[in-house]
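Batch job 17 of 40 flagged for manual review because the log was empty.
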Amino acid sequence: MMQNVHLAPETDEDDLYSGYNDYNPIYDIEELENDAAFQQAVRTSHGRRPPITAKISSTAVTRPIATGYGSKTSLASSIGRPMTGAIQDGVTRPMTAVRAAGFTKAALRGSAFDPLSQSRGPASPLEAKKKDSPEEKIKQLEKEVNELVEESCIANSCGDLKLALEKAKDAGRKERVLVRQREQVTTPENINLDLTYSVLFNLASQYSVNEMYAEALNTYQVIVKNKMFSNAGILKMNMGNIYLKQRNYSKAIKFYRMALDQVPSVNKQMRIKIMQNIGVTFIQAGQYSDAINSYEHIMSMAPNLKAGYNLTICYFAIGDREKMKKAFQKLITVPLEIDEDKYISPSDDPHTNLVTEAIKNDHLRQMERERCVEVVKASQYVELANDLEINKAVTYLRQKDYNQAVEILKVLEKKDSRVKSAAATNLSALYYMGKDFAQASSYADIAVNSDRYNPAALTNKGNTVFANGDYEKAAEFYKEALRNDSSCTEALYNIGLTYEKLNRLDEALDCFLKLHAILRNSAEVLYQIANIYELMENPSQAIEWLMQVVSVIPTDPQVLSKLGELYDREGDKSQAFQYYYESYRYFPCNIEVIEWLGAYYIDTQFWEKAIQYFERASLIQPTQVKWQLMVASCFRRSGNYQKALDTYKDTHRKFPENVECLRFLVRLCTDLGLKDAQEYARKLKRLEKMKEIREQRIKSGRDGSGGSRGKREGSASGDASYVDPLGPQIERPKTAAKKRIDEDDFADEELGDDLLPE
């Protein structure tokens, strides 16, 4: 071994870089052009031989010889240079290319340079997938499994339970084959768990409907115990149903409770259904006390008819009469969940409206309308028939069939005092809606005389008096209604309006603040409070309450314009512009808002934007000349004199007797040096002369009729205080939200509440 160890000479200890500039002369390439052997090798095939491999060929060239130590030696070329890919001094030299990239002999023959081979044409099409590949077989098998599951469900819905079960079994078998094939091709993580879940769930369901309960329970256990299936624990409810069918009540309750633990608290409907199943199981097991606990919890969380009825039965079974009465009271407060408005079209779809009209009065509808009332009339509960008739009238009103409603109510008016009062109350409301205040007042008197303690009748009577302008008397009726029923919000609202008309603002504010405590999100109440603060000259409070109105109804254009008006009074132009612009966005036909926005852009000298608003105003009020004059003025101020001239000319054609338009035409034509200035000047002079003559005639006519004029003025002053009896002088808020004193809204409130049986 020591013979392979070479010690460095002592002379090299101090010279670390000795031999750095030494190189082997065989790497000298300066004389290659004069080397005849090298040039011959380049021109012949000797220089383009393939790289040397480990295989020993039959050529005469000596190949590298492997030694016992794994090293290789090779012979040098004819000029002493190492061969390409050979080993020199134990270091393997990388192979190099002999031919340059992109160079061919064709270039020497004059062909075009094409290094990217674009002249070869388009690439060959992709190789089509083989139909017998493992991936394609898996996809086809998965499709077949899905089809079998669908066929099983369809057979079940058609009532062919045996066929449904067979299809479910076939789907299960093919799905297991599919899983095995997937495991061979891909990793287990790529298995389609959703497909496996649907196959097993469908199989368990088909076992259950075919009364193969043991097989169904085993299949459900497979799903439930597999941790890879999320939310599979809810299927324990199905297992509980199977145990209930087998009358194994203890296991049924156990699995129901396990399923209840799996359902999150946000899914209230599912939890209520499971608890109902637990209650039914306790009833069948005879454990009424435990069933009562379940149903009491249901009635406290989400009361329904089934739970209330079963709770009443449980108390009856244990003989607790007091709690049975309370349970029955809870039961009758549960909504019936009956669509009372099924004959009222919910949309503007013409086809839906046509169908509704067709079935509204067919034979089935007539039987439905008459059978219930007739059966009650023939029974011992005759007094309920009147209430049903009143409800029938309410239904007609909701369908906007007022003639039928009035006919029924007039028949009921001849009944006993309670029914008579309710019928007269609604007749009064109907006539109030039709602005027939005389009839409304007459029926309101009948309702009050029949039942002096009916707050709705007193409120309607107050409304008829209010419409006639007798606010003091109206306030008395509203106060009496509140004494009979302090929760009558209509009377409280209307008395606030009455105090507002009487300028008793503090009392009106107290009424609306009380009402606000009852109706927290009522836009009408919030607006009235803001309106009263505005009348009390407290704009900051008015703005604050109007902001609350906007939070309830953010798209009301009148409320937004009112906010803009208040901010404008306060001098805050930016906020005023914001709310006026929002109001214009929701309702671009309010001429006051359009005028303010146009004036705002004129003040800020944005003439082009002001033109847009004045043009819209001219479309809304085409007979008003001022909007077109404002458009022309904006063109003139912006420097567009030609457009201004055209606008003035167009305005003059539409309003040839307008003096202002002619004055601007004369001025503009004179400034522009047009010949039309003289013609417009003549027209202006003639119009001014005619105007002067007209004024003189009017003046002379007034001087000659001074005595009679006094009489006419006196009668005119008397007419000014006249109130049209067909149009109640009720101050309405400047908002789209209606007030309850309004005939439409108030009548709906009364018809919805006071027509119900007492």
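Reviewer: the log was empty due to a logging misconfiguration, but the result itself is present. The chain has 33 helices and four strands. Unflagging and moving on to job 18.
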